[in-house]
Amino acid sequence: MKELLSPRDIVTSGLCIGCGSCVAQANLPDTQMDFDAYGQLKPQGPNAWYNRESGSFTRTCPFSPGSRNEDYLGATLFPTAPHVDNALGRFQAAYVGHVSEEDFRMQGSSGGMVTWVATELMRQGLIDGVAHVIATEDPQEDGRYFRYRIARTEAEIREGAKSRYYPIELSEVLSLIREVPGRYAVVGIPCFIKAVQLLRKENPMYRERIQYTLGLFCGHMKSARFVESFAWQMNVPVDQIEQVEYRQKDPSRPANWYNAKLTLRDGNSVNRDWWHLADGDWGAGFYMNSACNYCDDVVAETSDISFGDAWVEPYSSDGRGTNVVVVRSPLVDQLVTNAIQAGRLQLEPVDARFVEQTQAAGFRQRREGLAYRLTWPRSGVQPRKRVIPDDKTPTAQRKLIYRMRYYLSKGSHQMFRVARNLQMPQLYIDWARMTLAAYHGFAYHQGNYEEIKNRYNQLKGE
């Protein structure tokens, strides 16, 4: 395997997550992140840059086998952490609960903790800005529904509440951080936070200016086609969508009953439960970025604090939303502790096994599933992960599930592209219904034909 890599090496090997770190470092006017044919963000630029192998890129790309892994970064960033866990990494404390002050909880998809911590850092005068994701004002004009931006007021931070299952990238905000001195916090999924930490390790300027990182537990990155599929299945024109809400909150319904809502330019809106969407089973992996098959970090192990949903009872049935929180930075831990004592946060301490249980499916996919996938032959750059390749431990059924999930994900990109080019949405929808019904039948019912048939009819609305 080559010692030095180029952006092209990572992209053509299916290991590019689209974080934009390489574009930010290039700092060239004709280099940018843009959508590929499958609706995923990828670096684009002159061949001289795109094909150039470099030590800096090899060390800072989060999926490069030449970059430092999460164990090394965690030990460097949090050397005094009292807890070291195989699933959670290094941490000070873990909690389950929600924000009890103001309306943080109701404004967020879960318990409101991400927005609260970002706001508290600003209230305490510890930062000047927060790099987070917001909805674009005019997605049809902008070309994207969501982007990173720098929030510099509490009101702007609150605009970043809610989950966004959409491709985003860091190049623009990293460029702003380079151009405008200050103290910043960055909110991101595990691989994005890892990219930031690798960049901080490489570049003293980023190390000085990015002072806090807020991580989000992650299942996988979706492509932009997920929104278009919503539109197809809800029978609305894609070019009329003005706002996308992936998880419309309803306190009267269980938190894990996801409901997607599209608001159109004329003010009308449509919505549908994910369960009734042909590609609405998150675990099946529709539109998943191929790099996600080679990630082993579920809980953003290199962040100062990270947040997820409490997907265990009684919390998953509470429609108001509940967070699990893993705190790693001693300073952030003190902020959280003080707020708990003041009654501003309603958090109860939990252990690592509780947090792992709330993300059980994610850990199976990223640990046992990853170990199995690492035994498959592949071309291009070979991932170097913390798990050992293993095709002995998974049962025959688990192997089948991992295989189905891999090919379903790959097929969803290809089938959607064909249907989109032919302007035949039903071609993709019928394929997705049949594929998801088969996946459910094998994943939950050992291939029982009647169960597959029943699920297919449910997806057709019969």
From TrEMBL:
GO MF annotation: an example: metal ion binding
Residue ranges annotated for the Coenzyme F420 hydrogenase/dehydrogenase beta subunit C-terminal domain, each copy included: 183-351
Residue span(s) of domain Coenzyme F420 hydrogenase/dehydrogenase beta subunit N-terminal: 95-174
Keywords: Iron, Iron-sulfur, Metal-binding, Oxidoreductase
Protein name as catalogued: Coenzyme F420 hydrogenase
PANTHER family: 7-HYDROXYMETHYL CHLOROPHYLL A REDUCTASE, CHLOROPLASTIC, FORMATE DEHYDROGENASE SUBUNIT BETA
Naturally occurring in which organism (per UniProt): Rufibacter hautae
InterPro entries for the chain: Co_F420_Hydgase/DH_bsu_N (IPR007516), FRHB/FDHB/HCAR-like (IPR045220), FrhB_FdhB_C (IPR007525)
Entry's transmembrane regions: none
Keyword presence, Acyltransferase: no
